[in-house]
Amino acid sequence: MKRYTPNVADATEEQIAKATKDSIPSVAPLYFAFRIMVACGILMLLIIGASSGA
User: Fold this and answer.
1) What is the annotated localization of this protein (predicted)?
2) Positive or negative, the Cα torsion across 9, 11, 16, 19?
């Protein structure tokens, strides 16, 4: 909130709405980063399993 007004008590509805919108993180990067991390873990397990099973 301090990014939009120096005095938080005097914030307008528009400033509160902007601060609220900016506080919501973007979900797509986290979603795909998690999926990539899980895929890498599964790939490593498959590689370890294939190398120790031979």
Assistant:
1) Cell membrane
2) negative
Q: Which of 26, 45, 48 is nearest to 37 (CA)?
A: 45
The DSSP letter of residue 5 is: -
Q: What is the DSSP string of 36-51?
A: HHHHHHHHHHHHHHHH
Domain locations in the chain as residue ranges = 8-53
Per-residue tokens: 1: 């909130």
Mean pLDDT of the chain: 89
Rg (CA), the chain: 23
